[in-house]
Write a structure and sequence with these properties.
alpha/beta, four-stranded parallel sheet, three-stranded antiparallel sheet, 7 helices
Length: 166
């Protein structure tokens, strides 16, 4: 089934780090915002590395990212996908990542997991000319990575936004 992304990127003129996912899961599409599955560790990890409490509402999630100097979007604008399976993503039309890069002082791009990384490299690297760093997926499907290991790996994201926070 072909699906459209459905929600806007989160960024502002102070976003120094850009985190890219692949495409919203069923839970995220139902929630209307990124990483909506209750077992996805993204929001807990981002809050912890920024020294903040985990956000509950969409507005709190946006504020956490923006205050931390983090832009967030997904690589894929539309695709064929079965359920939430990244492995099933086909016929990709990418999001306009260069538009964000032109509007923000992004210093580093990070991909949340292997699929986001591969899709970025395939569809956007030649357009942006900017490498992305692959981080371990915060998905509950990535059971090999404990929450504690994710915190260590994802700490680099906070380093990029640290001076924005003061």
């Amino acid at each position: 089934m072909r699906l459209e992304h459905g929600f806007e990127p989160v960024y502002n003129s102070r976003s120094r780090v850009f985190v890219l996912g692949s495409f919203p899961s069923v839970a995220s599409r139902d929630d209307g915002f990124y990483y909506g599955h209750p077992q996805n560790r993204f929001w807990r990890v981002i809050a912890a590395i920024l020294g903040e409490a985990p956000p509950a509402s969409i507005e709190e999630k946006k504020a956490l990212l923006l205050n931390g100097g983090i832009a967030l979007w997904d690589v894929v604008k539309s695709c064929e996908i079965t359920g939430s399976s990244d492995a099933s993503i086909r016929d990709v039309i990418p999001n306009d990542i260069p538009m964000i890069l032109a509007r923000c002082p992004v210093e580093r791009i990070y991909a949340n997991g292997g699929t986001a990384y591969s899709l970025y490299r395939k569809h956007l690297l030649r357009i942006t000319g900017r490498e992305a760093v692959r981080l371990p997926s915060t998905s509950p499907a990535n059971a090999a990575w404990s929450y504690e290991r994710l915190l260590v790996a994802w700490r680099v994201v906070a380093d990029g936004g640290a001076d924005v926070r003061g």
